Amino acid sequence: METLLSIDAFPGDKPLLACDFDGVLNLFPEPAGQFVRNAEPPAGAERRRVRTAHGEKYLIDFYPEIVAELDEIVRSGVAELGWLTTWGPNIRAVIEQAFDGKLSGGFVLKKQPPKFRGFRPADWKLTGLRDRVAVTGQPWVWLDDEVILAEKVTNPGFNESSVGSAPGMFIIPDQAVGITAEDIAAIWQFIETTRAAA
């Protein structure tokens, strides 16, 4: 299976997992997500070095069992995986080098837009998810450690219906922990519930 596919290869007839990377799968145990040189990864986490297409090197800390559990959802064919992360197409390096091919077969839901006059739209992830769901009408799960919380602070009425009329669910992990087995179970439950309602 190819690491990343074109978004056009996905008909939108299954629930969408809109997945951020940093703070969701890549753990940030240090304050404000700052990587401390020579710090050990959290207990039970694995550390791998990846090199992006631009030649930059990063250390990734993740829980292999969580990656495997999320991969099981994707490989079972019950959901589509759309990456909604600043990594954009560079998520390929993570999948191939750190995850040993797990979480292959997804697509980049939206790339981070370039800065215009020094600024980048803060809502680009939300816009990407809204645009996709508006076209497909598919149920969705948005996994993000920062943007959803920022939207809730900016707009106290922000909730799943703010994304669109399709059923949806937010998963907001602690960036030091990332998504958990409980989050994976909640995703499975959401998928089963939306399939039963279809």
List the main descriptive attributes of the protein structure presented here.
198 residues; alpha/beta; six-stranded parallel sheet; globular
Question: In words, what does this structure look like?
Answer:
- With 198 residues, the chain is of the alpha/beta class.
- 29% of the residues lie in helices and 17% in strands.
- The chain is built from 5 helices and 8 strands.
- It has a 6-stranded parallel sheet with strand order 1-6-5-2-7-8, covered by helices on one side.
- Strand 5 (80-83), helix 2 and strand 6 (106-108) form a beta-alpha-beta unit.
- It is globular.
- The mean pLDDT is 92.
Task: Indicate the topology.
Blueprint: E1 4-5, E2 16-19, E3 46-51, E4 57-62, H1 64-75, E5 80-83, H2 91-98, E6 106-108, H3 124-136, E7 140-143, H4 147-154, E8 168-171, H5 181-197
Structural class: alpha/beta
The span between the termini is 28 Å
Shape: globular
**Main sheet overview:** 6 strands, parallel
Along the chain, the helix and strand elements come as EEEEHEHEHEHEH
Strand order of the largest sheet: 1-6-5-2-7-8
Which percent bin holds the helix content?
25-40%
CA-atom Rg in angstroms: 16 Å
Unreliable parts: none
Q: Which range does the strand content fall in?
A: 15-25%
Q: Tally the beta strands.
A: 8
Q: If helices are DSSP runs of H or I spanning 4 or more residues, what is the number of helices? A: 5
Averaging pLDDT over every residue, what do you get?
92
